[in-house]
Design goal:
The chain is an alpha/beta fold. The protein has two domains: 169 residues, Vaccinia Virus protein VP39 (Rossmann fold, 3-Layer(aba) Sandwich), CATH 3.40.50.150; 60 residues, N-terminal domain of TfIIb (Single Sheet). It is 26% helix and 36% strand. Strand 2, helix 3 and strand 3 form a beta-alpha-beta unit. Helix 1 packs across helix 2.
């Protein structure tokens, strides 16, 4: 995530929130990772934010970052498919194509229903996803080698499978001793994202109890269509 422009992402999501729900104060983030977006959102406006992720380790790091910044964000371990909170929110948002990590229609339906259950009557569910127009273009550009810091480096191999609509990022990570430069540990991590088309997502939404309030292209407020590479959806109660 080192190349992510968090201020731009924050401005974009905040603009959508203020356009569709100008009086929103209570926010829930799904798939928050290590919490950077939530912390930026908290600084952007007077929001009360609950941030969730399925990974306890991610939430532990997010909480540590929050303490450093004296943040009031509440950090919780939750599966986006089963949020299971006893409260509702003005806005639920999920960014950085987290939806693409759901590989089947059952899981998409589960997220939509779980979000619906936690939205206030006039609330909005905002999420983005990348389409088959994007992965073939970006995949070759993501192949890289990078030194993260004095201890860690990685190699990433990125590939898009057109037939399966799967974008796979394979990371090989090495840890080096700072003094000797010798490799002391190696491990790998494979990220698999199902690349849903605009029509597929629209069909799944039509089968849910939510309706489309808007579908935006990339980081603009222009209408998305089947040619869009990244789409941000805004859903509301049906």
């Amino acid at each position: 995530m080192h190349g992510v422009d968090y201020p731009d992402w924050t401005d974009y999501i905040d603009t959508i929130i203020r356009y569709h729900h100008p009086h929103a104060t209570k926010l829930l983030e799904l798939a928050c990772g290590t919490g950077t977006m939530a912390l930026f959102m908290e600084k952007r406006d007077d929001y009360e934010i609950t941030a969730t992720d399925i990974s306890p380790e991610m939430i532990r790091i997010a909480g540590r970052k929050g303490e450093t910044e004296k943040s009031k964000v509440e950090w919780l371990v939750r599966d986006m498919r089963r949020i299971e909170l006893s409260e509702t929110f003005d806005i639920i948002y999920m960014v950085f194509d987290s939806l693409n990590y759901l590989h089947n229609e059952k899981d998409i339906h589960a997220v939509l229903e779980s979000a619906r259950q936690h939205l206030k009557p006039d609330g909005s569910f905002i999420f983005d996803f990348t389409t088959p127009n994007y992965s073939p273009v970006i995949a070759p550009l993501l192949n890289e080698e990078r030194n993260v810091n004095e201890h860690y480096s990685y190699r990433r191999f990125s590939n898009y499978d057109h037939l399966k609509q799967m974008h796979i990022n394979h990371f090989l990570v090495e840890k080096k001793d700072r003094d000797t430069g010798k490799i002391t540990d190696r491990f790998e991590e494979i990220h698999q994202q199902r690349i849903w088309s605009f029509d597929e997502i629209m069909t799944l939404i039509a089968q849910s109890n939510l309706v489309v309030d808007a579908a935006y292209e990339d980081f603009d407020l222009s209408a998305a269509d089947e040619n869009s590479e990244r789409i941000t959806m805004v859903l509301k109660h049906g």
